[in-house]
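Appendix C reproduces, verbatim, an entry submitted by the partner laboratory led by Prof. M.T., so that reviewers can inspect both the input and the predicted structure.
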Amino acid sequence: MRRLILLALVGLGAQLVDGSLGMAYGVTSTTLLLAVGANPAAASATVHLAEIGTTLASGASHWRFGNVDWRVVLRIGIPGALGSFAGATFLSSLDTSVAAPLMSVLLLGLGLYVLTRFTVRGIRRDRIGRPLRRRFLTPLGLVAGFVDATGGGGWGPVGTPALLASGRLEPRKVVGSIDTSEFLVSVAASLGFLLALGSAGIDLAWVAALLAGGLVAAPVAAWLVRHVPPRVLGSAVGGLIVLTNSRTILRSDYVDAPDATRYAVYALVAVLWAGAVAWSVRAHRAERDELDAELARLDEDTEPVSR
């Protein structure tokens, strides 16, 4: 019972992050399932089954708040579904001893990407309104879907930064469109895992716990996307993913690092993580002050005209 309550809380927290940032539900949830000893393919299957419900609720909530561009959803979601089905089939064919460290390495890489992307770089806004082309969205969807299924998460960490970097969609619509299209990806990945594995190793109670937490958080997250600073949240979540998967890799049979080495790495990651969050907070405040100053100048310029 304690484990189910913990999973529900993880599902709630992961969906709050995912619905606000457009990523990290799968990465966060799969990281925890691996940490408690779940089979890699079963862990990814469990998360994707739960995501069928959470992404449907999240998409509906984002649509209600006007955060969805349906053209983007279809153009990235359909190839994403194809990629995720292929990724699920690939992961299911791997031996557990190979799949576990492979998934942890993928998750670590995604965590580093999220941490670096949101700590170092801001969000482009100079090209908002320009159309996103199919030749950009189709390969992006295929790659993001494949990574999502093989890594237990990755649709958001791959897709959201790419759309943000394009500068052609408002950040809230990037998050809403990625979260909505993830429903297609989750359905396809779940079908791939069920066809390859059956229901072996999939604990439906775990699925229900993750789903319950995610359903509670989905409407709240859709509202929070308008208010939570993406840079700060991205740095915080990225650091957590890096720390957790570093622990998994260092304790694996392939590495089996001594205690002194592991603790030194944990301390280094924690220091870098704290520094990244502090930097992101400072950068967010600077951007906010710059925007306030620009708005103040615009008010001063328009004041004589209004008189």
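The first helix runs from residue 2 to 21. Additional entries are available on request from the coordinating office.
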